[in-house]
Each structure stands twice: as C-alpha cells, then as structure tokens.
Amino acid sequence: MSKKSYIIGRAGDIALYDDTVSRRHARLDVDGDECFLTDLESRNGTYLIVDKQLLPFTKGRVSGDQVFAFGECVRTMTQLLDSLPEKQTPAVSAAETPAAAAPVVAEVTSFDATMASLPAVQRLTAVDIIGLLERAEDALNGGRSQIEVCETLGISEQRYQRWCREYGATRIEREGNTQALRRENERLRKLVSDLSLERDALREALEMARHRIRGEGSSPPSLSVVMGGDGKVKN
Questions:
Q1: pLDDT digits over 71-96, tens only?
Q2: From 3.30.70.100, 1.20.120.420, 2.40.50.140, 2.60.200.20, which CATH number describes the 1-124 domain?
Q3: Taking the model in full, what pTM does it have?
Q4: Are 10 and 18 in contact (CB under 8 A)?
C-alpha cells in the first residue's frame, strides 16, 4: 500500500458520528506497514488508552491493537483500519508509547481486552468522566488554573463545565448526586413494584369476572311464572 492520509472525524474519510468528535478530528497516515496518527487540534482532544489509563495523544506511530478515544468516542486502531475506504488493513507493526506522552490523567475501568468487539458507537462512560473530574479537582486544589487543567486533560473549558454540571464539580457534589440518584432509583423501583401489584390485582379481578360470566351463561336464569288476573303471564 502506498502512502495515504485519511481524516478521522464527523466529516472525515473515517466517519465518527458523535457530537464530541470534531469534523476534522485527527489524521491517519498509512505508509506501507506503518501507521501514524495525528490530532488536528481537535476541540475535545484525542486520548491513547494504555493499561486502562487515558493519555492525551498528539501524534505518533500506532499499532492495530491500540485503543483511542476521540473526544468521548472510543475506537481500536483495528476498527479504524477496517473503516478505510479501500477496505484494506495494512499489517501495522507494534508501536511504542510516545516518549513525550503526558502524565496519566484518569483510570478507565470499563476498557479491557474486549475493546476489539466494540459496538458501532462506544463512548466514555460516567466512570471514565468522573475519573477525569477527580483528577481535575485535585489539580485545581493544588493551585493550577482551570485553563491549565483543561489543557492537561486535552479538553475545552466548555466541555469541562458541562461535565461539572452533569456530574458535579467536586467529590461532595458528585456524592450528593449519586445519593440523589440512588433515592430516585429506589422510588422508581417501589413505584414499579406497586404498579406490578396493582396489575396483578386487576388481572385477578378480571379473571374472576370472566369465571362469573361463564358460570351465569352456562344455565338459564330461574324464572317464577305467575298468572295474573287478566290472564297475562307475569315474571
């Protein structure tokens, strides 16, 4: 295969339809048996997932068994290669972790060796995002600015603020949200249980009504016939 370049993104040669992915998010260069990935200054960043950890990724040589998060959209390199317009998958060689990789920013507990069988759309989970928020909180408490923290995470301030609104900016807020969710889940479970009981009661009442109707229809009702003085039959 001669050297070719492919754009990864919502409007790229390798299309990733996710609102956290930029139109031109990253570029994949394929040169014979080697592949190189470059982030195109995407709004929400590109991450290399190594040993269940997220590393901001700028550019470097990649291999088919590596896993990347483009914004919140997760793909293995093999999946990306399978999506090439030519439908050809080069035998990429093993890649080294970029020497200038940034420090680990979050643990990702939901990614493992089964990533090769990802469904059509796979995104960062709540666990992944909360892990990033906890790292951000620790950095902010250590005196770093929000801009510096977002640059370290490879995300925009708008995205960070959206995550804070959805999950909570601090551990106390997130714990409160978790407890509120638990209470709401408990209320919904109780509601479902009560509805199930009501449904069973209605079903039993309907069944009894059917039996009663069948029983009344099996034999004609008893009638007392009285002859009136006018000679007409009275019931």
A1: 888 888 888 888 887 654 444 444 44
A2: 2.60.200.20
A3: 0.48
A4: yes
